[in-house]
Structure prediction request, 363 residues.
Amino acid sequence: MIRFGFIFLAIILFGFPSETKAVDLSGKRVEIIVPAGAGGGLTRNARAMAKNFSKHIPGNPTVVVKNIVGGGGQKGINFVYNKGKKDGTQILFGPLNFVGLNIGLPGIKYKAKDFHVIGMCCGTPFTTIVRKDIKGGIDSREDIVNKSGFVTGGRIPGGNLGLFSRMPFAMLGIKNRFVVGYKNQPKLKAAMLQNEIQALTTGNPGYFAFYVNDTLKKGDGIALFTHPTLDQKTGEPRPVTHMTGVPTFLDYYAKVKGGKPSGDAWEAYKWKATYDQWTMSMYLPPGTPKNVVGAMRKAWKDNWSDPATQALYKKGNKTLPTLLQGADADAILNNFKSMSEGAKKYFAVETGIAKKNRKKKKK
Prediction:
């Protein structure tokens, strides 16, 4: 009994051994799991982040990027959540499906609150691009409001690459058909070049890697508008200083329609631009010891503060990242379910959930 008392007192004073033991990953292999195809912007940024990550992790382990594709982006996330190693050697790099978690999208086998968030990045804008010869051709970005019946491409239901095209088109009253299944931005670009699709949205790294000096420079496409992150506290767009000549969607809407948007698509857009643009976030699986979580959070912060990592990121993105950690990152995870009924309705229709639910009720 006395011995138990000493053990109990030691736990109170010093914590459980696994929570206080120094982390040392010497000789280990740390896998950065990316739930998307190898050629896209998410993987490009994962590689930029990973290049100097080792020197900030205790023990300086080997760090590699590993793509796990499938299940509409959920295979990799499900793997880390359910089977990921809890010693810091398997880390998720990418966004959770916040839309799907709100509306019950099939295939999601994780709970956001159970992940250990290391840090969130990067809050950069998405950009919507169309072929210049779309439906008879356009001479300016304002002409798109007179077009309809074209095909918009995306990666997964509920994903940013599709929805940041679809939501604006809905608010502008532009009818289009939506096709998903393109596993990364290179596949979307190839589909646009073949005229299989006529509209798409790209993330910030994809915009500079695939379009600025090719499709847009050649005059084969037009960048319609950008989609900056909305500040969670103010609801205002975060300033975009590294892209010139392309209006934000809200500025574009005010010019062609006047005023501000409204309706379910607008509710969905506001929510997505607030909570779902931190696409380069990093998570450890449930059950990871506190000492490992703490060590990885410090390594993440030190790595992003490293001038070499910043230079690599800026090379591909033309700007420095916006970072969230601690209370700011927790605020995203704690509040992403504060989705309005209008937004839920829009996403349910857009992802096909509403149609499936109607069929279930008829049975």
Notes: The first strand starts at residue 29 and ends at 34. The first helix runs from residue 2 to 14. The radius of gyration is 22 Å. The chain has two domains: 22-123+278-335, 126-276.
